[in-house]
Design brief:
Radius of gyration: 23 Å
Largest sheet: 10 strands, mixed
Shape: globular
Structural class: alpha/beta
Number of strands: 10
Helix content: 40-55%
Distance between the termini: 67 Å
Number of helices: 11
Length: about 325
């Protein structure tokens, strides 16, 4: 009995020490450089967003944030690596819709589970898209585009940046809700699609604001609407898709921060507050605007997780209904 009692005391003391150590680690985070895995190439949109935000986080916390680009397989290689890291706050993942809301429905053999292997921490920013049409198309509004498409079934070609990309999914969702039949013309990136759209060889493209709007402002293409729920501060003159006759249509590429699964709630909150504060800084918002990205509205980690799950459910339906694959 004495041995059993002594063992229980030792176990209890060990647990207490572990708890004290964990609380201390969370209270002092970060006391060494933090690695931020970005599962996409350097100089891409996610990388640029990560560097803008983490630079401010590092300045606020007085500790270095090291952006570590781990590209490949649509972001899934770096994401899988982040999933295996310790949940101690010294390895973060800054990623987008692609790895957590889209790829799981296109790549059934992922090396990670977006829900089980990660803890959502902070919704950082959103990048809306803009609906562009070629100037040769006799339409100036989304309603006119829908009417033209219905009157000319199968005659509209829509360009995308490839099978299964957000550009493809945006157009598939639009086509289904609007009841317009169009032909898919995939490219290896929207930059390669723009010349054919300008020439009238394709007719419709959902592009990112920073790459698409310069062509619209120069008169080479016509911008009809943005895909965000509210009008974008980056192009306030453009109506939303919902305002244009497609109620409920909304799509943005979101950027967010994750910890590996198992992170203590106190640590999650500490990291969340650091990124939430940085995103609301005026200089960060200005830098993001230059990238065509808007700071996310304030939310909790739980709200961020719920938003991602809703996004995932939506794209799962679109992918299934349209039989979208990566081939």
């Amino acid at each position: 009995m004495r041995l059993f009692s002594w063992s229980r005391r030792v176990l209890g003391l060990a647990c207490l020490l572990a708890c004290v150590s964990a609380v201390h680690a969370q209270a002092t985070w970060p006391d060494r450089p933090v690695r931020v895995i970005v599962p996409f190439p350097a100089s891409g949109a996610t990388d640029l967003v990560a560097r803008v935000v983490t630079q401010r986080v590092a300045a606020d916390l007085g500790q270095q944030m090291v952006v570590d680009n781990k590209p490949g397989a649509g972001g899934t290689i770096g994401t899988a690596e982040a999933a295996k890291a310790p949940a101690d706050g010294y390895t973060l993942l800054l990623t987008t819709s692609s790895t957590h809301a889209i790829s799981p429905h296109l790549m059934p053999r992922l090396a990670y589970d977006p829900r089980k292997d990660f803890t959502p921490v902070a919704h950082v920013a959103d990048a809306p898209s803009v609906l562009l049409v070629t100037n040769s198309l006799p339409v100036k509004t989304v309603g006119e585009l829908i009417a033209y498409g219905k009157a000319n079934p199968g005659k509209l070609n829509y360009a995308t940046s490839g099978n299964g990309t957000i550009v493809h999914l945006n157009t598939a969702a639009f086509s289904a809700q609007a009841g317009v039949e169009m032909t898919h013309v995939p490219y290896k990136g929207t930059a390669l699609a723009i010349p054919d759209l300008i020439a009238g060889q394709t007719h419709v493209l959902f592009d990112s604001l920073p790459t698409g709007m310069p062509h619209a402002k120069a008169g080479r293409l016509r911008a009809l609407a943005v895909t965000s729920q509210k009008r974008s501060s980056l192009a306030p003159e453009l109506p939303t898709m919902a305002e244009s006759g497609l109620p409920g249509y909304s799509s943005v590429t979101w950027f967010g921060v994750y910890l590996p699964a198992g992170a203590p709630p106190a640590l999650v909150e500490r990291v969340h507050q650091a990124f939430a504060k940085a995103v609301q800084a005026p200089d960060v918002a200005a830098s993001l605007a230059k990238l065509g990205v808007e700071p996310a509205a304030p939310s909790t980690p739980a709200q961020f997780g719920a938003m991602v799950q809703a996004d995932s459910n939506r794209w799962a339906t679109v992918i299934r209904q349209h039989k979208i694959t990566l081939e």
